[in-house]
Design brief:
By secondary structure, the chain is an alpha/beta fold. It has 14 helices and twelve strands. The strands form three sheets. The protein has a six-stranded parallel sheet with strand order 2-1-3-4-5-11. A four-stranded parallel sheet has the order 7-6-8-9, with helices on both faces.
Length: 363
């Protein structure tokens, strides 16, 4: 294989195919959730780039200085907790899981995926006593997860674990995710640098850990930059309950957009905490004949292609590198197991990077 081909990764193929990394990963694995037409197109792109899945060679037995991955031979699980299965297919979540899968593939390590939407009904086939390591994805609304089944969560806390994207309040284990506070700070700086003095944070999920961190960063940096900031946040009228379902509804976001538009001093720019929120904001504004990028600016986070493809003007957002988060989580579990689980909880965050669009106007 030539040197150029060695640099081609799943992320390279995804960029060339104009789709999410998780979509490429599933298409190349012949996942039935991907259409045959999409599989064929992605495979053609991968072939044109001379993409080849990387594999780490197993160490030779005689080379005692290269023992291979500590994960080899371990029983490993990727487990979702308190989430409706539909949430696992969200681009940012599936991309993080895809990162775990790709890292395992390179290591030649096998694993299983399990879903526990109802923490009071743990599948009988899951034997956590025989599990060596966990990758966890859980509901991030306050302490809902640990309070729903403390016995289960305490049992899981005794297994070496890494949370993907966020660690729910009160839970144990390492965590690998995006630096969401920094993302909020960068969003405030970007709007300030483009001349916006009256800005708003908008979210229908104010008690969600990721949203809370992004709001904290945005509000604090906006204040440091001397901006006039307003908050438009409102949880679901019926509150949250497990399993968490896709929380966004047009009505919920539209209600917040109405508040914003009726404010005595209307903001010129909105930081929608996630692309899923921004996509609904676009629709709510369009129904009122308001043009994004002209009459009002919008910025967001996640770089979720499934949500932002087709938005006009193209959304300005931040890439949180979800696929890399999954890969880093595997490395962190390797570290924890190599130290016999004898270290305190570790938090690792990746820096988000701007993906500019045309949704923020220069004033």
């Amino acid at each position: 294989m030539n040197k150029t081909a060695e640099l081609v990764t799943v992320k390279t193929v995804a960029k060339a195919a104009d789709c999410a990394v998780s979509t490429v990963s599933r298409a190349l694995r012949d996942d039935p959730s991907i259409s045959d037409a999409a599989k064929q197109r992605i495979r053609q792109v991968a072939e044109s780039l001379d993409y080849r899945p990387l594999r780490r060679r197993r160490p030779k037995k005689e080379n005692s200085q290269n023992p291979g991955s500590v994960l080899a031979g371990k029983r490993l699980l990727v487990v979702s907790l308190g989430l409706d299965r539909s949430l696992i297919s969200l681009p940012v979540v599936s991309s993080a899981i895809s990162g775990v899968e790709d890292a395992f593939s390179e290591l030649g390590v096998r694993f299983q995926i399990a879903h526990i939407p109802d923490l009071q009904a743990v599948p009988a086939h899951l034997d956590f006593d025989q599990t060596d390591g966990l990758f966890l994805i859980g509901a991030l609304q306050g302490k809902m997860l640990i309070e729903s089944n403390r016995t289960l969560m305490e049992r899981l806390s005794r297994i070496p674990s890494v949370w993907l994207l966020g660690r729910p309040q009160g839970c144990e284990g390492d965590c690998v995710g995006a630096n969401d506070v920094l993302l909020g700070e960068k969003a405030a700086d970007y709007l300030a640098d483009h001349g916006h003095q009256h800005v708003a944070f908008l979210s229908p999920k104010p008690d969600h850990l990721i949203m809370t961190n992004r709001e904290t960063g945005f509000v604090s940096q906006a204040m440091r930059r001397g901006l006039d900031i307003q908050r438009f946040v409102d949880p679901p009228s019926r509150g949250w309950k497990l399993p968490i379902k896709p929380p966004l509804s047009t009505d919920a976001v539209q209600h917040l957009v109405d508040q914003l538009l009726n404010a005595s001093k209307r903001p010129t720019a909105i930081f929608a905490g996630a692309d899923s929120v921004a996509a609904v904001v676009y629709g709510s504004l369009a129904r009122r004949g308001i043009k994004v990028g002209d009459e009002i600016s919008v910025i967001s986070g996640n770089n979720d292609h499934a949500f932002i493809t087709g938005l006009y003007p193209h959304l300005t957002t931040f890439d949180i590198h979800a696929h890399d988060i999954g890969r880093l989580a595997v490395r962190q579990l390797e570290t924890r197991l190599s130290m016999n689980n004898a270290i305190a909880n570790v938090d690792l965050t990746l820096e988000p990077h701007l993906t500019p669009g045309e949704s923020v106007r220069q004033l």
